[in-house]
C-alpha cells in the first residue's frame, strides 16, 4: 500500500553533477570546455565594454563620443533617416499608421488565443496593401504626394519584402498549379519559367529590371526605379513561392483529388475549394521561411541605388563628421534584421510543430 | 485523375465540354500568348534600341575594353577585348565560389557536429553561431568584413608581418609563392607514385581482410606513404623549389601571391554565412539516422570511429546531399554580391562595367544569365550523380 502511493522521486538538479555530465565527462571534453570557456570570457568582456559600459548614448554631436566604446548616439541622431529615408517629416504619420496597422495585423498571430486573429491576418494580407497604396504615395484624398524616390530606410525594406511576398503568392500558386498540370505545354512553360528564375542571382534580376525593363516597354511608358525593382523581385520570388506551394500540392493525398472529381467539381472549383485550402495551410511554414530569405535579400536593392535600411546606413557611415562609425551602423542594421528574422523563424517553427499531425513513418 | 475516358458513342459530350479538346485549346492559347508577348517585347526592344542608337549583335565582344581589372586569373590588360573581360569575370566568380564551397563545407560540418556535441558549452556556442549568422543579411556581413574589419587594417608600411614571409595590411594578404625549378618533375612523380601505392595497398588490404579477416592499418600506412615519398623525392631531386617572398617595394608589396581584401571579405562572409545553413543540414542529417543503427553497430563490436564512418555517415549523407546541393547553388549565386564591394566577378565586370561601356544590355544580360543557368545545371547534375551513388539501393 505504502509503496503504491509513494510519489515519484523529485528530480534533483545538482549543479556539480550536471557540470560533470555535460561539461567534464571525459578528458577531451574537459579540454574543450576550458578552451571554449576561455575564448568566451576573453571575447565577451571587451565586447560588453564596447557595446554597453564604455559606449556613448547621450549627446548631440560627434565630439560627445569618447571613442572608447560604441558611439550609439550616431544611431540616435540618424534614426529618423534610417527609418523613413527622405520621407518628409510632416507626413511621416502616414508611415507610422502603416507600421501600426502592420503590427496590429501580424503581432497577434504570435498569441494563440487572441480574438479574431485570423481576420486580422486576412486584413494584413488583403486590406493593408490597399490602404498603403493610397496612404504612402499620397496624391489622393487631399494627401500630399510623396514621390517614391524619397522613400527609404526600414520603411522601404518592409515595403519591398511585403509587396514582394503578397504579389508572389498568387503568381506562385498559378505557377505551381501549372507545373502540376497535365497539359504538357503549360507544364513545360511553367517549368522553364520557374527554373530560369531560380537559377539566376537576384542581383542579375535587379540589374535586368533596372536596365532592360525600359527597353522592353513601348516608348513613353516607363516605371519608377522602385516599381522596376518590385517587378523584378516579384517575378523572382514567385518562382521560389511556386516551388514551396508545389510541395504542398504534392503532399495532398490522391484521394482528395479523386473525391473532388467524383463530386463533379471542375478544375478550378476542385483546386479552389478542396486542394488549395489544404495545401496552402500545409506550406505556411515554408512561405514564412521564403519571406525571411526575401526580407534579407531586399538589402540588395542598394546596389541599384535604392536606399533601404542598409543603404541609408551605408550612405551615412562614410560621413566625415563622424569618425569610424561603420561598425556601429552595421551592428544596428544587423540587430534590426536579426530581431525580425529570428522572431519570425521562431514563429514558423512553432507553427510547424502545431501543424505537424505526427503522421510519420 | 483528370483523364476521363469517354465512350465514343453518339451521346458523348459537346466538344467544348470535352477535357481533351479543352486541353488542346488552352495550350494553343498559351503558346499564342507566349509568342505574342515575346514578339511585342522583341519589337519594343528593337525599336527602343534603334531610337537610342544601340547596335545589336555580339560584335562588341571583339572590341577593345580599355579598362583595367584589379584581379584576374587569366592574363588581362586594358587593351584586350570585351570578350576577355567575360573570361576574367567568370574565372573570378568560379574562384571565389570554389573557395567558398570548400571552406563553408568544412566549417559547416564542424559546426553541425558540434551542435550535437555532448559538451553543453560547445553545443550552445554553435547554436548561437547558427542563429546569429543566418538571420543577418549576407550583404551586410560582406560590408562588415570589407568596410569595418579589413579596411581598418594597417597600411602597407605598417603591415602585420609574420616571419618575414606573410604580410597582412589593408591592401590584402601577401603569401610566398612557390616557384618550381628544374627537376621538380621528380617530385610530381613521387606524389603520383605515392597515390598509386596507397590505392594499391587499399585494394590489397580489403582483399586480405575479406579472405582472412585480418585488418591492415591502411590509414596510418597510407598517410605515412603520402608524406614520406614526396619528401624523399624532393630531397633526392635536390630541393628544386624556391619561394618568391613578398617584399615592400615603394608604397606596396611586390612578389608572392596576394589575396586582395575584396576577395578575402567576400570569401570570409560567404563561408561563414553558408556554413550556418550547412551546419543545420548536417545536424538534421545526423539526427535522421535512427539510434538503433548506432546501437546495432556497437553490438556488432564496431569501435566509435568505424560506427561513424561505416554506419552513421553513409546514411546521413542521403538526407544531407539534396539540401547541400541547393546551398552550393546559393553560394554561387550569392557570390554575385561581389559587385557591392568591387570584387571583379562576372556580374561586376561584365554586367557592370562592360554593360555600361557598350550599352548592349540585352546581349550582356542574356550571356550572364545563361552562365548562371549553366553553372546551376552543372552543379545539380554532379550532385545528382553523387546522390545516386549514396542513395538507398533497393534490392
Automatic annotation (TrEMBL), chain A:
Listed GO CC annotations? ATP-binding cassette (ABC) transporter complex
Bilayer topology term: Multi-pass membrane protein
Determine if Membrane is one of this entry's keywords: yes
Any idea which UniProt keywords this protein has?
Amino-acid transport, Cell membrane, Membrane, Transmembrane, Transmembrane helix, Transport
- List, alphabetically, the PROSITE patterns matched: ABC_TM1
What Pfam families does the database record attribute to this sequence? BPD_transp_1
Using the record's annotation, list all stretches that form the ABC transmembrane type-1 domain: 154-343
* Gene Ontology annotations of biological process type: amino acid transport
Q: Where does it reside?
A: Cell inner membrane; Cell membrane
Q: Which residues cross the membrane?
A: 30-53, 119-141, 153-177, 189-217, 271-292, 299-317, 329-347
Q: Name one GO molecular function term.
A: transmembrane transporter activity
Q: Which family does it belong to?
A: Belongs to the binding-protein-dependent transport system permease family. HisMQ subfamily.
Query: What's the protein here called?
Result: Amino acid ABC transporter, permease protein, 3-TM region, His/Glu/Gln/Arg/opine
Organism annotation: Marinobacter algicola DG893
UniProtKB/TrEMBL annotation, chain B:
For this protein, the record's SUPFAM superfamilies field holds:
MetI-like
Name of the molecule in the record: Amino acid ABC transporter, permease protein, 3-TM region, His/Glu/Gln/Arg/opine
**What processes does the entry annotate via GO biological process terms?**
amino acid transport
Tell where it localizes. Cell inner membrane; Cell membrane
Q: Which CDD domains match?
A: TM_PBP2 (cd06261)
Cellular component GO terms, alphabetically? ATP-binding cassette (ABC) transporter complex
Family according to the record:
Belongs to the binding-protein-dependent transport system permease family. HisMQ subfamily.
Q: What is its main location?
A: membrane
Task: Using the record's annotation, list all stretches that form the ABC transmembrane type-1 domain.
Answer: 90-383
Pfam families linked:
BPD_transp_1
> What UniProt keywords apply to this chain's record, in alphabetical order?
Amino-acid transport, Cell membrane, Membrane, Transmembrane, Transmembrane helix, Transport
Residues spanning the membrane: 23-42, 54-74, 94-114, 126-148, 186-205, 217-237, 257-279, 364-386
Give the top-rank taxon of the lineage listed in the UniProt record for this protein: Bacteria
**Membrane topology value:** Multi-pass membrane protein
A GO MF annotation of the entry reads: transmembrane transporter activity
Amino acid at each position: 500500500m505504502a509503496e503504491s502511493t509513494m510519489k515519484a522521486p523529485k528530480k534533483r538538479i545538482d549543479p556539480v553533477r550536471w557540470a560533470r555530465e555535460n561539461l567534464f565527462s571525459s578528458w577531451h571534453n574537459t579540454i574543450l570546455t576550458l578552451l571554449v570557456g576561455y575564448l568566451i570570457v576573453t571575447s565577451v568582456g571587451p565586447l560588453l565594454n564596447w557595446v554597453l559600459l564604455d559606449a556613448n548614448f547621450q549627446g548631440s554631436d560627434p565630439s560627445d563620443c569618447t571613442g572608447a566604446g560604441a558611439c550609439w548616439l550616431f544611431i540616435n541622431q540618424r534614426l529618423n533617416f534610417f527609418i523613413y529615408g527622405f520621407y518628409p517629416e510632416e507626413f511621416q504619420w502616414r508611415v507610422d499608421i502603416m507600421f501600426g496597422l502592420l503590427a496590429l495585423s501580424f503581432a497577434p498571430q504570435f498569441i494563440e488565443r487572441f480574438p479574431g486573429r485570423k481576420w486580422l491576418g486576412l486584413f494584413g494580407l488583403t486590406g493593408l496593401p490597399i490602404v498603403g497604396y493610397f496612404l504612402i504615395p499620397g496624391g489622393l484624398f487631399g494627401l500630399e504626394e510623396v514621390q517614391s524616390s524619397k522613400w527609404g530606410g526600414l520603411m522601404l525594406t518592409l515595403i519591398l519584402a511585403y509587396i514582394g511576398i503578397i504579389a508572389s503568392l498568387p503568381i506562385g500558386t498559378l505557377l505551381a498549379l501549372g507545373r502540376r498540370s497535365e497539359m504538357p505545354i503549360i507544364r513545360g512553360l511553367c517549368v522553364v519559367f520557374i527554373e530560369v528564375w531560380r537559377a539566376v542571382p537576384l542581383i542579375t534580376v535587379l540589374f535586368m529590371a533596372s536596365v532592360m525593363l525600359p527597353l522592353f516597354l513601348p516608348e513613353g511608358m516607363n516605371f519608377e526605379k522602385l516599381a522596376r525593382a518590385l517587378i523584378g523581385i516579384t517575378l523572382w520570388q514567385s518562382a521560389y513561392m511556386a516551388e514551396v506551394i508545389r510541395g504542398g500540392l504534392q503532399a495532398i493525398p490522391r484521394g482528395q483529388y479523386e473525391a473532388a472529381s467524383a463530386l463533379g467539381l471542375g478544375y478550378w472549383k476542385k483546386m479552389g475549394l478542396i486542394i488549395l485550402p489544404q495545401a496552402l495551410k500545409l506550406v505556411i511554414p515554408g512561405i514564412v521561411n521564403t519571406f525571411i530569405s526575401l526580407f534579407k535579400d531586399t538589402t540588395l536593392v542598394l546596389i541599384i541605388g535604392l536606399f533601404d535600411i542598409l543603404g541609408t546606413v551605408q550612405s551615412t557611415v562614410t560621413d566625415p563628421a563622424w569618425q569610424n562609425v561603420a561598425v556601429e551602423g552595421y551592428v544596428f542594421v544587423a540587430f534590426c534584421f536579426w530581431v525580425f528574422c529570428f522572431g519570425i523563424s521562431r514563429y514558423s517553427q512553432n507553427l510547424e510543430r502545431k501543424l505537424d499531425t505526427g503522421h510519420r513513418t | 485523375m483528370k483523364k476521363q475516358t469517354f465512350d465514343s458513342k453518339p451521346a458523348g459530350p459537346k466538344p467544348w465540354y470535352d477535357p481533351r479538346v479543352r486541353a488542346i485549346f488552352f495550350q494553343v492559347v498559351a503558346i499564342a500568348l507566349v509568342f505574342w508577348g515575346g514578339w511585342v517585347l522583341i519589337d519594343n526592344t528593337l525599336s527602343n534600341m534603334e531610337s537610342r542608337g544601340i547596335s545589336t549583335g555580339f560584335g562588341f565582344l571583339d572590341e577593345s575594353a580599355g579598362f583595367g581589372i584589379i584581379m584576374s586569373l587569366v592574363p588581362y590588360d586594358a587593351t584586350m577585348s570585351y570578350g576577355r573581360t567575360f573570361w576574367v569575370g567568370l574565372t573570378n566568380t568560379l574562384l571565389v565560389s570554389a573557395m567558398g564551397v570548400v571552406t563553408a563545407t568544412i566549417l559547416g560540418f564542424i559546426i553541425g557536429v558540434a551542435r550535437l556535441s555532448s559538451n553543453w558549452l560547445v553545443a550552445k556556442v554553435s547554436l548561437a553561431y547558427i542563429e546569429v549568422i543566418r538571420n543577418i543579411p549576407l550583404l551586410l556581413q560582406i560590408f562588415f568584413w570589407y568596410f569595418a574589419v579589413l579596411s581598418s587594417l594597417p597600411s602597407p608600411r605598417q603591415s602585420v608581418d609574420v616571419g618575414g614571409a606573410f604580410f597582412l595590411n589593408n591592401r590584402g594578404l601577401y603569401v610566398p609563392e612557390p616557384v618550381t625549378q628544374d627537376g621538380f618533375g621528380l617530385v610530381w612523380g613521387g606524389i603520383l607514385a605515392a597515390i598509386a601505392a596507397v590505392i594499391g595497398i587499399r585494394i590489397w588490404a580489403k582483399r586480405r581482410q575479406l579472405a582472412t579477416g585480418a585488418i591492415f592499418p591502411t590509414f596510418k600506412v597510407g598517410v605515412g606513404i603520402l608524406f614520406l615519398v614526396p619528401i624523399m623525392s624532393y630531397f633526392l631531386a635536390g630541393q628544386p623549389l624556391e619561394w618568391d617572398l613578398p617584399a615592400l617595394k615603394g608604397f606596396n608589396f611586390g612578389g608572392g601571391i596576394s589575396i586582395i581584401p575584396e576577395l578575402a571579405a567576400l570569401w570570409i562572409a560567404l563561408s561563414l554565412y553558408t556554413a550556418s545553413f550547412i551546419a543545420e543540414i548536417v545536424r538534421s542529417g545526423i539526427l535522421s539516422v535512427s539510434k538503433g543503427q548506432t546501437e546495432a553497430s556497437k553490438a556488432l563490436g564496431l569501435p566509435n570511429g568505424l560506427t561513424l564512418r561505416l554506419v552513421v555517415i553513409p546514411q546521413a549523407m542521403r538526407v544531407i546531399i539534396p539540401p547541400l546541393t541547393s546551398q552550393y547553388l546559393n553560394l554561387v549565386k550569392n557570390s554575385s554580391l561581389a559587385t557591392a564591394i568591387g570584387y571583379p566577378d562576372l556580374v561586376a565586370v561584365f554586367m557592370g562595367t562592360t554593360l555600361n561601356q557598350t550599352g548592349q544590355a540585352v546581349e550582356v544580360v542574356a550571356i550572364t544569365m545563361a552562365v548562371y543557368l549553366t553553372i546551376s545545371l552543372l552543379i545539380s547534375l554532379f550532385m545528382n550523380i553523387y546522390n545516386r551513388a549514396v542513395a538507398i539501393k533497393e534490392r
